[in-house]
Amino acid sequence: MEHRIEKNDEGVSPVIAVILMVAITVVLAAVLYVWAASFLEQGDSAPIATFIVSEDSANVYHVNVVKVSKQENLEDFSFFLKDESGYTYLGGNGFGEIAMQIIDGEATGIDETYDGDDADLQSRADNITADDGSTFPVHFRDNDRDGKL
């Protein structure tokens, strides 16, 4: 029996085929990664504020804003109070959370917005009046006197 070797030029080398398959897989994985990563993009994070809450002898709560994680103009801050259940504070024995936000536009409900435009503002105190008539002073102090909180 005689063995004959014939040259076959019609096929692709197995080495080249493996390289092509790996290249196509890597490109496809990169495209899918970029596409999936677009769903994970997040906007700017909200500033985190540190507060000190105290009650004076007349049972009035005073809220002092001590520090905010992002420096913003002091007149741009607004705030609102929430009760323990997360609803806007309406009075009672205390509140569970003080939320502060930077907003443009009109104040609604218990929200309070500073209307001043004093670039040299160093201290500001606003009062929140709840539906039951109780008042909570909120103090903002620019300790380093740069016009930002």
Automatic annotation (TrEMBL):
Entry's transmembrane regions: 12-36
UniProt entry keywords in alphabetical sequence: Membrane, Transmembrane, Transmembrane helix
Listed InterPro entries: Flagellin/pilin_N_arc, Pilin_N_archaeal
Span of domain Archaeal Type IV pilin N-terminal: 10-59
Claim: Transmembrane helix is one of the keywords in the record: yes
NCBIfam families: arch_flag_Nterm
This protein's name: Archaeal Type IV pilin N-terminal domain-containing protein
Species annotation: marine metagenome
Organism lineage: unclassified sequences, metagenomes, ecological metagenomes
